[in-house]
């Protein structure tokens, strides 16, 4: 594998084209594109600067954006200009030996928009909309001093920042964040949200575009478009170091520290970030997560275009977390001949160490050929110690099952991958051909030490079901090779042909060994192999996919129609003897129809299908080494499930009033869904057999409305969703269906008066109902209400005060879980050193009532859980800002 990587890297890095000419004059060539739509620009004027130039020395780009102009070798550069676009000046970078100066691709930014766009007239444009791009002017959305990107994006109409750091626009996922077209830490949205200063941002662009070749290869049959959030940097902030350094200390040994430095130039970008804290990464605007977590991270991101006709991008990110947690779980089972209820208590201490590094090299070989190479490395180490006790009741036999367990695990994994994408532009720029190669290698070393004791008690006796003290080493190796090819050909101005194919071959090998830990006469550990419970398996997974279709853009219609074929072949070997094979192929259409009423209003219908492959371990029967009360039997006849999705969505955005309304309906159904058929024997052991079963479906509707009042100072947002899902299951050979209804609604209010005052208020409700066909007497209802109010007031002498209060009320949960949660955070801060620094005193959970409660609806159980969470503390911090 290492030889393959070195050979591929050597061949592709040095694949460049050379050419020579005997002409004395210099020929300048290039291609000009719109910076947002990435479409060629025609009619761009190209003027020579300096040297022996004349007013007639001007070239014009053709319909493909291409130009060519003769010049002497004394020129200082060129100037590109076009009505409604910013002038672009390029300095000469040729040498005296050159006869051709290829400037490559040039991207020009608009000053105003053309007639088939919608924009706001006036002194400052708020927003503008084209067919594929929505752009917001960051200056029109007021944020507090020293705000971060997350604070800015929460003010953009239609854009939602999710609690996990992901983004949605009109309920469609945004795949990544780029800065002037370049990825920030590999497109990591969470890192961008908390490490980019809002004051850096000039424009926020939400772009719908075709995926790059490498992304298409990952999900060929799931669609070939994505939404990207692109940020442009203010001109006066370029080539400057912008960031901050902060440190804070609190009671109960609480602390926080961090730094962020960003520098963005015209041809290069550099970022350095780092932090360490033991307060769960929380701030005054939200509550903490489960457990008590200490986090350390540091990262570096770099991109430069100063290498001739090339761009080099590199990033590295290290993160380590240490989490202490405890939980109480009450579970009610939905059946009559298996467990009735279970109570479990668990305490754990987990450490996670992760490191990721990427190097990407983009090379323009010549005007028609391009090469992109990327090498990635990932390392992960997880250490976990947990203790658990549980009590399970079987009401039909008046039997209880007791268990205690202790687990120590140490799992180390790493992965290497190499990706190369070659793109060739066709003659007359009629389209392109691309091919994408990916090689991957991922070894794992998993070690688990566990002790457990399980006893069964009835009215007559107590007996031990299992007692062990074992070591389970489990080395795993994964190898992968993937090849993806695509052809795009412009049949006409409005019709594009696309053909694509992809093949992925993956090999996995796993050695699962078990040893009993015994003490010798000297008290030392000895390890006795347990051959009856040890096993080895390996598997080959071959995935082939093809897609052929057309993209039609005619008047107000955008149509993407594809015919797709997908096949998954699996071959599993157990202990190098028995072989299980599994093959399945499907043929299905994919259709996306968009009708654009105007640039800001559209109706979209979409349908697609894809297969969910069987996990290799589901095809073979292997023992459950760590839990003898759970027996898993493989099913060699198991088939891959097929998922079909249909959706209809509508969105309208008025860039003048910033009014947004969007909504949609979605229906998803699965054929041959893989579920577990569960039985319980007389000892209380759970025996699970994976089977295929139809009847899984989900229907969901959603809406979102945002409106501004009082000269855009007051914003109202309404959103909600409602859905119903059905899931089949089998308990003790009896089939049943779980049906769940869910309805949620939220209203959010925001009032902003310049930088003097900002107030936010919100109210939400979530109702869930679940019923079971197996036992019609059991129907559960639970409701959650939440209310929040926060404000920030900036006072004279550069003082600021703020507060956030939230209350969550639960109804319908199990006994002891229906308690309200009140969370009150507050702060006071003062800017010092002429606004370059600030001191802040914060109080978290002032009422000392923070807790974490959740409900999980399973196919045959309902579970309520309470987890350890961080409670009241105070923090004094100092921050210095580089502006």
From TrEMBL:
Q: Does the keyword Protein transport apply?
A: no
Record-given protein name = Outer membrane beta-barrel protein
Keywords in alphabetical order:
Signal
Highest taxon of source:
Bacteria
Q: Where is the signal peptide?
A: 1-20
Q: Which residues form the Outer membrane protein beta-barrel domain?
A: 425-727, 737-880
Residue stretches in coiled coil: none
Q: Does the keyword Flavoprotein apply?
A: no
A Pfam family matched by this chain, by name? OMP_b-brl_3
């Amino acid at each position: 594998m290492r030889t393959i990587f070195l050979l591929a890297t050597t061949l592709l890095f040095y694949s460049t084209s050379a050419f020579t000419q005997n002409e004395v004059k210099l020929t300048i060539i290039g291609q000009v594109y719109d910076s947002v739509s990435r479409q060629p620009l025609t009619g761009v004027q190209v003027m020579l600067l300096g040297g022996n130039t004349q007013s007639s020395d001007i070239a014009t780009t053709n319909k493909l954006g291409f130009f060519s102009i003769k010049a002497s070798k004394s020129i200082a550069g060129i100037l590109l200009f076009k009505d409604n676009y910013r002038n672009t000046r390029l300095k000469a970078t040729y040498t005296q030996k050159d006869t051709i100066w290829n400037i490559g691709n040039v991207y020009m930014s608009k000053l105003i928009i053309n007639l088939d766009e919608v924009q706001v007239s006036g002194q400052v444009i708020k927003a503008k909309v084209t067919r594929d791009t929505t752009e917001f002017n960051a200056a029109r959305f007021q944020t507090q001093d020293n705000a971060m990107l997350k604070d800015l994006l929460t003010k953009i109409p239609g854009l939602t920042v999710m609690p996990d750091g992901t983004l949605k626009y009109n309920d469609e996922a945004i795949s990544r964040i780029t800065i002037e077209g370049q990825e920030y830490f590999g497109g990591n949205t969470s890192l961008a949200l908390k490490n980019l200063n809002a004051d850096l941002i000039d424009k926020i662009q939400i772009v719908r575009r075709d995926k790059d070749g490498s992304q298409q290869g990952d999900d060929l049959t799931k669609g070939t478009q994505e939404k990207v959030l692109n940020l442009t940097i203010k001109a006066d902030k370029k080539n400057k170091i912008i960031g901050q350094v902060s440190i804070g200390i609190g009671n109960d040994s609480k602390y926080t520290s961090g730094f962020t430095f960003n520098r963005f130039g015209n041809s290069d970008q550099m970022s350095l970030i780092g932090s360490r804290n033991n307060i769960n990464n929380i701030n005054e605007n939200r509550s903490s997560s489960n457990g008590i977590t200490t986090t350390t991270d540091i990262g570096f991101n770099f991109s430069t275009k100063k290498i001739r006709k090339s761009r080099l991008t590199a990033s590295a990110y290290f993160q380590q977390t240490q989490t202490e947690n405890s939980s109480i779980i009450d579970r009610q089972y939905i059946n009559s001949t298996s467990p009735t209820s279970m109570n479990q208590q668990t305490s754990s201490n987990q450490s996670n160490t992760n490191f990721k590094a990427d190097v990407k090299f983009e090379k323009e070989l010549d005007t028609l050929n391009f090469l992109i190479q990327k090498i990635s490395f990932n390392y992960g180490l997880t250490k976990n110690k947990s203790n658990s006790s549980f009590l399970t009741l079987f009401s039909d036999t008046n039997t209880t099952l007791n268990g205690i367990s202790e687990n120590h695990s140490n799992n180390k994994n790493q992965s290497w991958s190499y990706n190369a994408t070659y793109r060739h532009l066709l003659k007359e720029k009629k389209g392109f051909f691309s091919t994408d190669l990916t090689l991957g290698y991922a070894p794992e070393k998993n070690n688990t030490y566990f002790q457990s004791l399980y006893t069964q008690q009835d009215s007559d006796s107590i007996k031990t079901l299992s007692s062990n003290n074992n070591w389970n080493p489990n080395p795993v190796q994964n190898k992968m090779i993937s090849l993806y090819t695509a052809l795009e050909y412009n049949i006409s101005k409005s019709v594009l042909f696309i053909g694509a194919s992809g093949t992925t071959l993956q090999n996995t090998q796993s050695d699962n060994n078990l040893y009993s830990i015994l003490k010798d006469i000297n008290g030392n550990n000895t390890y006795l192999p347990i051959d009856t419970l040890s096993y080895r398996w390996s598997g080959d997974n071959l995935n082939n996919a093809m897609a052929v279709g057309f993209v039609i853009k005619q008047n107000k219609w955008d149509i993407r129609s594809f015919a797709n074929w997908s096949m998954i072949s699996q071959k599993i070997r157990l202990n190098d003897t028995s072989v299980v094979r599994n093959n399945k192929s499907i043929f299905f259409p994919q259709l996306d129809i968009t009708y654009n009423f105007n640039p800001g209003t559209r109706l979209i219908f979409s349908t697609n299908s894809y297969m969910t492959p069987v996990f290799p371990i589901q095809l073979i029967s292997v023992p459950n080494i760590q839990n003898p009360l759970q027996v898993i039997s493989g099913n060699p006849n198991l088939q891959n499930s097929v998922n079909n999705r249909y959706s209809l969505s509508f969105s309208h955005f008025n860039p003048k009033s910033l009014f947004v309304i969007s909504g949609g309906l979605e229906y998803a159904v699965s054929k041959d869904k893989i579920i577990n058929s569960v039985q319980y024997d007389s000892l209380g052991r759970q025996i699970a057999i994976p089977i295929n079963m139809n009847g899984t479906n989900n229907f969901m509707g959603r809406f979102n409305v945002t409106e501004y009042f009082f000269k855009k100072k007051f914003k109202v947002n309404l959103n909600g969703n409602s859905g119903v899902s059905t899931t089949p299951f089998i308990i003790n050979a009896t089939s049943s269906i779980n049906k769940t209804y869910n309805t949620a609604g939220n209203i959010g209010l925001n009032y902003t008066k310049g930088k003097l005052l900002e107030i936010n208020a919100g109210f939400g409700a979530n109702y869930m109902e679940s019923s079971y066909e197996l036992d019609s007497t059991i129907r559960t209802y639970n409701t959650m209400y939440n209310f929040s109010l926060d404000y920030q007031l900036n006072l004279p002498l550069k003082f600021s005060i703020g507060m956030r209060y939230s209350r969550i009320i639960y109804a319908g949960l199990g006994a002891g879980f229906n308690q309200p949660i009140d969370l009150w955070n507050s702060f006071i801060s003062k800017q010092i050193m002429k606004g370059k620094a600030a001191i802040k005193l914060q109080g978290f959970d002032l009422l000392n009532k923070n807790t974490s409660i959740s409900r999980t609806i399973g196919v045959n159980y309902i579970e309520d859980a309470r987890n350890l969470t961080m409670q009241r503390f105070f923090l004094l911090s100092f921050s210095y800002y580089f502006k």
